[in-house]
Amino acid sequence: MLTICKLLNTFAAFVAGLLGGTFIILSFFYIYPNTVSSVYDNHQLLRLGAKIDVISIANTYIVFTTFIFVTFTILMGALGMWFAKWFSVTKEKEIRENMRDFFKAIDSDSVLAEKFVKGLLEREEISDRLQKLVVARVEEEIKARESEGAPIDFKSDTVDGGDNDES
Q1: Which residues are CB-contacts of 113 (< 8 A; sequence separation ≥ 6)?
Q2: How far is CA 88 from CA 20, 82, 118, in A?
Q3: Residue 125 included in any domain
Q4: Domain, as residue range, for 93
Q5: What's the predicted TM-score (pTM) here?
Q6: Cα end-to-end distance, the chain, whole Å
Q7: Which residue pairs from 120-127 have beta carbons closer than 8 angstroms and sit at least 24 positions apart in sequence?
Q8: What is the DSSP letter of 152?
Q9: What secondary structure, in 3-state letters, does 114-130 show?
């Protein structure tokens, strides 16, 4: 929002500069009317009854309108690149904030967490990946316990496979 306000402020300053410059030029011709008449008398295109070279006027018009269109095109291209960069930065920030909010919601709501896990496990590539991770972890645990020399009891009800309190 702050960037849009800065952009509008810059545009307003540009328009104010144009209006101020136009006012100064018009007030100069109003204050010094003889200067205006001497400009009309000395300029080929502004003199009454002067023969005007139509081709040179058309060429000048074409050149100046081309400058205006090229300047406008360059400005619009630069503005488009700036907006693209601004939106990409904003998009990444918004995605990070949404993920942070999502994980907070999962931590606080067990029903939502359960739905999320079920949705993940419905996808085949995720369930395959999870199975590979579990198998790798179990194999690491078995190798670690075998290297310690402790017997592995797969019949016990405890998670760590250790002592059973059923005496």
Answers
A1: 106, 107
A2: 37, 10, 32
A3: yes
A4: 53-108
A5: 0.34
A6: 70
A7: none
A8: P
A9: HHHHHHHHHCHHHHHHH
